[in-house]
């Protein structure tokens, strides 16, 4: 995409922009790192079969912080995110190299059970995906399957729905199908469902891309409010969203391989959000956040 | 720019669009449409004619005896008079002959077939869809064989079951033998439709469940299977409605005329199947029994149509839009 002149909209001539991208090709800017690291990726490389999707990603995710991952389409943001709770195990051709440490423990170590990893590291998807069950059962499902000790499931459901700022809207129709909710409510239901199992980290892959602006701002408010209890890692295409909600931002891009032309994703810059947006070090970051490519 | 375009468009409309004729209505397409209509008409007319003819033939015999009496029977209220007249009660009783043993037999066969085919078929489909690697050589071989098995003629399954029953030293013509043949017959259909039903459950549901820390087993059992039940039951009923009309494998298994109700437990007792009993009746020398065959055909048709209707109702009622 970056190599296609038509995608450069304004400003600089296309050729100049390409130059800017090529000059700093392998450079990586890592700014201030969080003090209290919950998770980190160490030289993470991901392959789909022979295709090298992500190259050498080193990231640290701070406790009770929101980390945003931004970058052009196909640069491997979702791939990295799915590795963080081993959802990429579901892709048969996927292979991971390097390590991902969760509180110092490599979740890709041979003895680690991916099911246990997912109990601690929950995930919210791009498209709201409630189960074809009642609102109540959607929430109760997680605690039931992981065998969580609960005194009263009703309380767990209420707490989760309050935590997702959905309780007041649905408290009178808990037994009704979740499919009757609006898209935004469904997405907050999915968030409630995730926090019902009391995870430590919550991964979100473009959680607002299927929502209208009002529903989006509700989810964003919710994320800011959830930050005090959870560590949140969010992939977004919406730069304003990254700027509004996140504490730290990781910018990825994709670089075509000279011989095969396959586009491998790599981390370009990782820093405090306010620094990245106010003062990007890498010309590619600057080009992306000013809307000149991607 | 846009003004020019708009003006051009309006003049085009005035010139070209009101030609007074339709390009869709030239001779070629009318003839073609006629041919399509004729084909459809032909198929429907033949079917309707067949059903009406059979129904008229069987008209004198649409009575309760069709369901309550055995093939060779006589009305107990008439028994004394018949015996007194010195004529053969069997000949006279033809008017009261019915398909009780066949109907009971077919119901037993269907239940036994379902009990065998549904768990086996659903389990196989679940394994293939949810657990087996989609790209492994094993899966591909199974896949191809399933398609082929669905096309294997019923008599082949009959032979297989004959062999199995003989090896077990079982009596000929007992329910379980027929049920084995019919279950094998519909197994590929059950597996294929169940796989389709499982495949139609969106992968987002599975991912949502797995992301909460559920195992693949929990996800299959609590999310995917319940969501696929309508599709599975539709496929199974359609399979059973094919099995209920099947006669050939049962002939091979030695199913024959039975003039008594099967004894409990039914699977080990000799039974008669409805289609076979109809077949026997249709070649009987007595007119009145041949009439009962026509009536029986209509009853069997109604049974099959009812099963298909149930399948369609289930499909429409529980159809989910994800
Ligand atoms: N299951 C898969 N099998 C094979 N290749 C995949 C798979 N998933 C992703 N890829 C490839 O990996 C690369 C990165 O994909 P990924 O979905 O992580 O990008 P992304 O940054 O999330 O893009 P987007 O912003 O469009 O969501 C792409 O080239 C994509 O084609
Ligand atoms: Mg993505």
Plain-language structure description:
The complex is a heterodimer of chains A (294) and B (322). Chain A is α/β, with parallel strands linked by helices and 294 residues long. Chain A contains eleven helices and eleven strands. In chain A, strand 2 and strand 3 (51-62) form a beta hairpin. The longest helix of chain A is centred in the middle third of the chain and has 14 residues, at 183-196. Chain A starts with 13 loop residues before the first helix and ends in a 5-residue tail after the last helix. Chain B starts with a helix and ends with a helix. Chain B is mainly alpha-helical. At the A-B interface, helix 3, helix 4 and helix 7 of A face helix 10 and helix 11 of B. Magnesium ion is lined by residues 77-78, 205, 235 of chain A. Adenosine-5'-triphosphate is lined by residues 48, 53, 73-79, 91, 93, 237, 263, 265 of chain A.
Q: What are the salient characteristics of this protein?
A:
heterodimer, A: 294 residues, Rossmann fold, 11-stranded mixed beta sheet, 11 helices, 11 strands, 34% helix, 26% strand, disordered N terminus, B: 322 residues, mainly alpha, MetI-like fold, 73% helix, flat, binds magnesium ion
């Amino acid at each position: 995409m970056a190599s296609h002149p038509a995608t450069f909209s304004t400003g600089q001539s296309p050729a100049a922009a390409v130059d800017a991208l090529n000059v700093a090709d392998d450079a990586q800017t890592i700014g201030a790192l969080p003090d209290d690291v919950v998770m980190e990726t160490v030289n993470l490389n991901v392959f789909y079969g022979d295709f090298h999707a992500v190259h050498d990603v080193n990231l640290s995710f701070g406790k009770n912080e929101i980390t945003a991952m931004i970058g052009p389409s196909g640069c491997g943001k979702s791939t990295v995110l799915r590795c963080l709770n081993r959802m990429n195990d579901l892709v048969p051709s996927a292979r991971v190299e390097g390590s991902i440490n969760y509180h110092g423990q490599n979740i890709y170590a041979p003895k680690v059970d991916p099911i246990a990893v997912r109990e601690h590291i929950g995930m919210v998807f791009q498209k709201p995906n409630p189960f074809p069950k009642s609102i109540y059962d959607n929430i109760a499902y997680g605690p039931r399957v992981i065998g969580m000790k609960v005194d009263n499931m009703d309380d767990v459901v209420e707490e989760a729905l309050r935590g997702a700022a959905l309780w007041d809207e649905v408290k009178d129709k808990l037994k009704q199908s979740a499919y009757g909710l609006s898209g935004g409510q469904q997405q907050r239901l999915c968030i409630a469902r995730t926090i019902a199992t009391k995870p430590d980290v919550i991964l979100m892959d473009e959680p607002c891309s299927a929502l209208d602006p009002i529903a989006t701002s509700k989810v964003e408010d919710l994320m800011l409010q959830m930050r005090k209890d959870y560590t949140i890692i969010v992939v977004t295409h919406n730069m304003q969203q990254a700027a509004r909600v996140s504490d730290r931002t990781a910018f990825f891009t994709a670089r075509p391989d000279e011989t095969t032309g396959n586009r491998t994703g790599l981390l370009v810059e990782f820093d405090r959000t306010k620094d990245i947006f106010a003062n990007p070090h890498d010309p590619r970051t600057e080009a992306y956040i000013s809307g000149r490519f991607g | 720019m846009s003004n020019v375009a708009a003006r051009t468009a309006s003049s085009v409309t005035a010139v070209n669009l009101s030609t007074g004729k339709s390009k869709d209505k030239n001779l070629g397409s009318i003839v073609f449409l006629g041919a399509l209509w004729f084909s459809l008409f032909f198929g429907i007319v033949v079917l309707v004619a067949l059903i009406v003819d059979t129904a008229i033939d069987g008209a004198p015999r649409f009575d309760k005896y069709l369901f309550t009496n055995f093939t060779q029977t006589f009305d107990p209220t008439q028994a004394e008079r018949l015996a007194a007249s010195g004529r053969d009660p069997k000949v006279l009783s033809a008017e009261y002959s019915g398909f009780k043993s066949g109907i009971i037999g077919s119901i037993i066969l269907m239940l036994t077939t379902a009990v065998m085919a549904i768990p086996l078929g659903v389990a196989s489909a679940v394994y293939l869809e949810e657990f087996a690697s989609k790209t492994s050589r094993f899966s591909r071989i199974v896949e191809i064989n399933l398609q082929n098995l669905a096309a294997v003629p019923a008599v082949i399954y009959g032979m297989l079951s004959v062999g199995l029953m003989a090896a077990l030293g079982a009596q000929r013509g007992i329910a379980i033998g027929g049920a084995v043949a019919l279950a094998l017959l519909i197994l590929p259909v059950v597996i294929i439709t169940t796989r389709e039903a499982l495949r139609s459950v969106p992968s987002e549901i599975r991912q949502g469940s797995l992301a909460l820390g559920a195992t693949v087993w929990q996800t299959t059992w609590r999310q995917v299977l319940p969501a696929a039940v309508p599709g599975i039951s539709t496929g199974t009923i359609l399979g059973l409605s094919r099995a209920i009309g099947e006669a050939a494998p049962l002939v091979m298994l030695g199913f024959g005329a039975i003039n008594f109700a099967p004894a409990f437990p039914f699977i080990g007792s000799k039974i008669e199947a409805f289609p076979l009993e109809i077949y026997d009746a249709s070649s009987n020398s007595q007119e009145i029994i041949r009439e009962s065959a026509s009536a029986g055909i209509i009853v069997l048709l109604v049974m099959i149509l009812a099963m298909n209707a149930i399948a369609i109702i289930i499909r429409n009622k529980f159809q989910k839009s994800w």
